[in-house]
From TrEMBL:
PANTHER family: NINJURIN-A, NINJURIN-RELATED. The lineage of its organism: Eukaryota, Metazoa, Ecdysozoa, Arthropoda, Hexapoda. It is a multi-pass membrane protein. Keywords: Cell adhesion, Membrane, Transmembrane, Transmembrane helix. One of its GO terms (cellular component) is membrane. The keyword Transmembrane helix applies. It holds the Pfam family Ninjurin. Belongs to the ninjurin family. The keyword Ribosomal protein does not apply. Residues 1-46 are annotated as: Disordered. This is Ninjurin-1.
Length: 167
């Protein structure tokens, strides 16, 4: 007696239906995005990982740079009433310089092929310098916060502004 073969999943599907949500493939190909998680046992491409990591760090650096530019603008506008004008200006300027250096390091690091043995050493050195730069940015941001913008809150009887530390 011949054994009946069990039809496979694909044979059970109706034409132009995918069997999951009822929508068929458009234009004859499956153009839906794949899962963000690779199938088990597959090794992700290291270069793709590095480029995504650099892009995420670059976006964070850009957001922090715009926040520091806004802080610098405020400190420069309130130069006469700001009790910590010079320390704030120095720390914010130093932070902007570090952020530009980290941005350049991220751009340089994304250009190396980390699968190539010759380039892996250069990429590692630049990556270490970038991590050091991010650490310095964090430390300088702590000082920026400690010398944060002071705001005048009340006027005393003599007419001098009483300054209260913001934050």
């Amino acid at each position: 007696m011949a054994h009946a073969t069990v039809p496979k999943y694909r044979e059970l599907r109706q034409p132009n239906r995918d069997g999951v949500n009822g929508f068929g493939n458009r234009f004859g190909t499956d153009d839906r995005p794949g899962s963000p998680f690779p199938p088990p046992g597959s090794i992700p491409d290291v270069n793709t990982y590095q480029q995504k990591k650099n892009l995420a760090q670059g976006m964070m650096d850009l957001a922090l740079l715009s926040a520091n530019a806004n802080q610098m603008r405020y400190v420069l506008e309130s130069s006469t009433s700001h009790p910590y004008f010079y320390p704030s200006l120095v720390f914010i300027s130093l932070n902007v310089i570090f952020q530009i250096a980290v941005g350049v390091g991220l751009i340089m690091n994304s250009r190396y092929d980390v699968k190539d043995e010759k380039e892996i050493c250069k990429a590692d050195k630049i990556n270490n310098m970038t991590v050091l730069g991010i650490f310095l940015i964090t430390i300088v941001n702590v000082f920026i916060t400690s010398f944060s913008v002071a705001t005048p809150t009340a006027v005393s009887a003599v007419g001098a502004a009483v300054v209260q530390q913001a934050g």
